[in-house]
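Schema walk-through. Below, the input block comes first and the output block second. Nothing else is stored per chain. Lengths vary across the set, and this one has 493 residues.
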Amino acid sequence: MTDTPIGPSVGPGRLWQRLFARKSVALVQSQFHGEELHRHLGPINLTSLGVGCIIGAGIFVITGQAAAAHAGPAIILSFIIAGFVCAFAGLCYAELASVLPVSGSAYTYAYTVLGEIVAWVMGLLLVLEYGLAASTVAVGWSGYLVSFLADLGVVVPPTLAAPTGSLVTLADGTTVTALLNLPALLGVGLVTGLLVLGVSESARANNFFVILKVAVLLAFIVIGFFYVDKANWTPFIPPHQGGDEFGIQGVFRAAAIIFFAYVGFEAVSTAAAEAKNPQRDLPIGIIGSLGISTALYMLTALVLTGIVPFTLLAVPDPMSTAVDAIGLGWFSFLIKAGAILGLSSVMLVLLYGQTRIFYTMGKDGLLPPLFSRLHSKRKTPWINTVIVGGAVAAAAATTPIKVLGDLVSLGTLAAFAMVCISVMYLRVSHPELHRPFKVPFYPVTPILGVLTCAFLILQMPLHNFMLIGSYLVVGIIVYFLYGLRHSRISGSI
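--- output ---
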């Protein structure tokens, strides 16, 4: 493979040369100075962006499901395992973000280091990591909203609060078939509208949501601690019941499930083109948000499984179950309101990250130009944002949360492993590059990142690999039909 800058044709080339054409490092770094997006974000905004995305999905949505089906109270061990894997990948992201401070995140890194076809696959994985993750969070957001409204005497019909075709059990024991999850659809629509308005407005809203969300979690930890029944932690690791149900196997399976909750630190790198000083601020945002969020995850999970038996947490809104069990009406109101606003910030950051990746792919010619078209005044990729928001809303309204969560985790783990490989390749191919931040204990750290990601991937059930395989095959067909024909890089070969 050779670095291939944008320019006049250099000959017909072979197909494999076009498939593995790369952006030159110099070209990518030059784009840092030519970006049209406004640079508003400093280290506090970036750390808040990461915390806003990380804190929410894992605690407010997936924790209960993973604890009830796989890990029990030992879900805290699953968070520790996932946190270590993320630490390895996060350090690799920080180095790449300091060297290649432009939009696109892992997609851009793969394009520069491994070639166009790998970048396209990375783009497909990032759709799972961001788009489907936003849909997953929207389903959880809907669960908390429905519970919150019920406390106020407003009842959302069960047929309009669950995925299309799913069976909902009513209070009298009868079942009905759901039409769609209307609150999830509306929630994504509101966040999409905010992103269309502009990044400054979105960042300010996110900062407010993050402050409120962290305050609510701290209140849950402190107040909930006094209502913990230690008997709920026994046995800490429930006996193995076969397959990935409980035991050590269940702890690892739960770690793979909740892994997607950590995508927030990676979302920081998608904001490179709108950061004031990305070489310095991106590593701060990535590592800072990861550390803060992991500590809060562990404490919250410990209190959550101590308040109620883990078997009762297999719901979209597990913290609602816990605070209702406490019996403090005002506290229940506070937690549910905080969860709704907190999950709003997660949807905001995930949709933001997905639109910025598509923005970069549009500029590269791999997606139609409308994905990179900016609003004349607000300088946001508004058409891109509307398209992404519509797709995410449709998935949230019709797809069960378990299916969404598993696919997100698998795609995220694969993307993280490729980022770790990219760091090692770039160290060998471009040792002369100035690296404002370097991965410590190189090459041990990126190697451990690849191995630990691979280990968690192997905890996934076979049918998930079949779904991902089918998705990637369709995506690659789209690349050959459109991307390869319109690519600015490979098209110049």
